[in-house]
Amino acid sequence: MREVEVSRFVRATPTAVKRVLTPTTVVESEGSFSVREVSETDDGTLVTAGARGLELTLRFEERPDGLHYTQAGSAGPFDAMTTDLSVESEDEGARVTARSAVSLGLPLPALTDRLATWKRRGELNRLLDALAAEAT
After folding, report:
1. Residue 53 has pLDDT above 90, yes or no
2. CB contact at 8 A, 58 and 32
3. Where residue 40 falls among pLDDT bands split at 50, 70, 90?
4. What's phi and psi for 79, nearest 5 deg?
5. Cα 84–86–90 angle (5° rounding)?
6. Do residues 36 and 48 lie in contact, with contact meaning Cβ atoms separated by under 8 Å?
7. Where are the extended beta strands (E) located within the chain?
């Protein structure tokens, strides 16, 4: 698995950022998939999302400082994917950090997982851009 981390200062309180940080807004803001269904379970929130013939389920768990989510099951683009979103107070706003680890489970992981990480970085940057715009 390869890891990627992006961080952004947002001119809004951590409370305001956490208010807009929901499983639905995360998936939509990343920009690769559209939300098709959301269900609450004892294990967290399950979001079924899809795009161009591909469907996956993400399992979200609330954490004191933000959200944690993983690809649930074997359907989806990744062999494994986990992401942590944290929101911390900083100066007159909040620092939002997204950390993700991904593996495609394909031959030549040094190349294929590097490409997956590059794509994931773009998704996480779009998410942080959207959070910054929505929270302020």
Report:
1. no
2. no
3. very high
4. -75, -40
5. 155
6. yes
7. 2-10, 34-41, 44-51, 54-63, 66-72, 80-90, 93-103
Structure tokens at 113: 């997982």
**Token pair of 29 as six digits:** 């803001």
Sign, Cα dihedral of 41, 43, 49, 55: negative
Least Cα distance to 100 among 116, 122, 118, 84 occurs for: 84
Residue 91, helix vs strand vs coil: coil
d(CA 80, CA 27): 17
User: How does the average pLDDT of the chain come out, rounded?
Assistant: 94
How is residue 24 written in tokens? 């639905």
pLDDT tens, position by position, 63-80: 999 999 999 987 788 889
Indicate the length of the chain as a whole number: 136
- CB-CB contact of 87 with 62 (8 Å): no
Q: Tokens at residue 67, please?
A: 């959200």
For 64, list phi and psi in degrees, rounded to 5: -55, -30
- What's the pTM? 0.92
